[in-house]
Amino acid sequence: MRYRIIFSLALSLLIAGFSQAQRIMPRLKEVSLNNLDFFQTPTANWKLTGDVQASYNDTTLNTAKGLGVLHNDFSRSIQNKPVHNLVTKMEHGDMMLEFDFMMAKGSNSGVYFQSRYEVQLFDSWGVKTPRYSDLGGLYQTIKKGNGMKGKAPMKNAALAPGLWQHMEISFQAPRFDANGIKTADARFIYVKLNGVTLHENINVDGPTISASFLDEKPYGPLMIQGDHGTLAIKNMKYLAQDDLKPNLHDISYQYFEKSATNLAEAKTTKPTLQGKANALDSRLAPARDKFLLVFEGKLNIPTTDSYTFNSLFSGTGSLEIDGKKVLEAKDLFLNGTPVSGTTDLSAGEHAFKFWINKDLDWARPGLSLYIEKANSKSIALHAAASMPERSPAPLIAVKAESGPEMIRSFMNHNSRKLTHVVSVGDPTQVHYAYDLMQGGILQVWKGDFLNTTDMWHERGEPQTATPMGATIVLAGNCPIYEKPITKDSIADYQYKGFTLSAGIPTFSYTYKTLSIKDKIQPEGKGLKRSINVSGEGKEKTMIRIAQGSSITPLGKGLYSIGNQAYFVQVSADLFPKIESYLGQQVLLLPGGEAIQYQLIW
Q1: Over 50: is that where the pLDDT of 17 sits?
Q2: Structural domains in the chain?
Q3: How far, in Å, are 110, 174, 233, 236 from residue 204 at the CA level?
Q4: How far is the CA of 395 from the CAs of 196, 248, 488, in angstroms?
Q5: Is the model's pLDDT at 290 over the cut of 50?
Q6: Residue 139 has what DSSP assignment?
Q7: Partner of 231 for a Cys bridge, out of 70, 72, 281, 509, CB 3.0 to 4.6 A?
Q8: Bridge partners of residue 553, in order along the sequence
Q9: Which burial class, exposed, middle or buried, applies to 168 when counting CB atoms under 10 A from its CB (0-12, 13-18, 19+)?
């Protein structure tokens, strides 16, 4: 065991380096699951239900009457019969898709973009080295010879069967020329599972195994595999993305070296250089500093819509379209912070004027200008070399390989920055973060341990550490439960340090006349927590072992917390009390006896 305390003093604000401009948030359209009208002639195995529950050992999903959840009521009689797949009426090209899903133990399914390219859905809980056939994998292509052999996810971010999981996918359709000849493969821009990136920019050279079509087209319906295993889906949202094709032309530029700082001054002096330009390009300014660079020209917009422009540069400047200011940096505009503006534009040609004044000798050179709309990707209007490449911040990660690791840091939790946090990592790849002020578990995760880049890189101003796996966020509050309570913390809970046994910490606290020992350690596919209370009044003390929007008994001491977000397992002969608390529910055990329970996810 090595215990690291990280102190990171920021003497001034960190000035960030250049990065791609911030994007507008895409507005995804939610699929109504109050009926099946979104899909083509669903077979009888596809049903709508109001709720789904299961334990991590269940091979089926238990449902309740209602609407809002899509359930594949799989049976062996339909296995390997593709007619039972679910296909949308909607056909798509480029598309963003996100959804929540639940799988039973051992279940298997998949989502096929354009009914051709599969992202695997599979019960991969506990798999150490995932393959392309595991959850989030990209399946093998049918193409003979040198076809894609399948792409395994970079990490296993799978949760336990019976828990709701979240997937986000950005898909780019294959491209074809005017004669229908394919010019670019289909591509998965990203695949994310439970907040963890599994793939980035993976080309798929043809339809994958079990695709509905062997050819490739610009458009096709989405398909959900129904003939392989049990599956539930909710909160399904999508965004069909236009292939935005704006065009800049008739571009001229003027360069003023130390002779003008704004457009008014530029009108009274002769430019140092001027001429025609092929694109917006910072390299047209020979000097690194003390110059004004002005571009004018025409912007062709293909469709009438609301457009957002994002730009990065150092100094001051603005973009005008048809004489209207769309974005402007009036004061010192530090490199790395994008400026943004939105305007409505009709289809056709528009006059633009874009200028920057760089007078910061210590700031990086370069300029960028991006355009996008709500249902498109961000498109660069500048030359690629106009924005110099900046080396990304190196990943500074802490691993827990030879033994347990403890890292002190700040950590963000439920929109709050907590200052007394310790993250405990274990070689079993089961980790947790813990609030020393409240004795509360903040979040748990599996896989890689901790990203400490924001603590150690450059000045380390944020001072925060971030889990590197798929996190389950817990309430993070004090285990001592007292009524009446009007706030979610206890002021008199006092941290008294910790002791180590085989590298595993046991935290000590006092509260009024009570002393509390709190030990958390990996066990099985989760964490075992042991809480011992001693002192006067312990028999009347209640210990909070879980808190969430809902708590549901599943039998034999197993409870699902927060609508199947994670499980809590207690001894089958214990019967914890469930009580309402500040708009949520809590699971309680008396503190008179030693308490043990397990967190499973």
Answers
A1: no
A2: 44-229 (2.60.120), 247-386 (2.60.120.1560), 397-600 (2.70.98)
A3: 16, 9, 25, 24
A4: 15, 37, 35
A5: yes
A6: P
A7: 72
A8: 559
A9: middle
CB atoms closer than 10 angstroms to residue 273: 14
pTM, to two decimals: 0.86
| Biggest distance spanned by C-alpha atoms of the chain | 89
The pLDDT, as a whole number, for residue 246 is 95
Look up residue 453 and give its DSSP letter.
H
- Assess whether pLDDT exceeds 50 at residue 9: no
What is the C-alpha to C-alpha distance for residues 419 and 99, in angstroms, rounded to an integer? 34
**Backbone dihedral angles phi then psi of residue 456, each to the nearest 5 degrees:** -115, -20
Token couple for 231: 């599956």
Angstrom distance (rounded) from CA 460 to CA 118: 41
Instruction: Please spell the DSSP secondary structure of 370-410, one letter per residue.
Output: EEE-TTB--EE-B-GGGS---PPPPP-EE---SS-EEEEEE
The distance in angstroms from the start CA to the end CA of the chain is 25
Residue 476: pLDDT band by 50, 70, 90 thresholds? Answer: very high
Strands (E), 447-493: 450-451, 466-467, 472-473, 480-481
Instruction: Look at residue 10 in the predicted model and tell me its pLDDT.
Output: 30
Please answer whether residues 170 and 188 qualify as being in contact, where contact means their C-beta atoms are separated by less than 8 angstroms: yes
Determine whether 160 is exposed, middle or buried from the number of CB atoms within 10 Å of its CB (0-12, 13-18, 19+).
buried
Tokens at 390, concatenated: 């900046």
Question: Which string of DSSP letters, residue by residue, matches 2-44?
Answer: EEEE-----SS-------PPPPPPP-PEEPP-SSSTTEES--T
Instruction: Report the alpha-carbon angle 479-547-566, nearest 5.
Output: 115
Determine the average pLDDT of the residues in 274-285.
97
C-beta of residue 562 within 8 angstroms of C-beta of residue 550: yes
Structure tokens at 11: 């003497």
Please check whether residue 374 is in contact with residue 306, taking contact to mean a CB–CB distance below 8 angstroms.
yes
Residues, the chain: 601
Query: Using CA atoms, how far apart are residues 516 and 531, in angstroms rounded to an integer?
Result: 7
- Picking from 421, 443, 440, the residue whose alpha carbon sits closest to that of residue 430 is 443
Q: What average pLDDT does range 1-21 have in this prediction? A: 35
3-state secondary structure of 154: coil
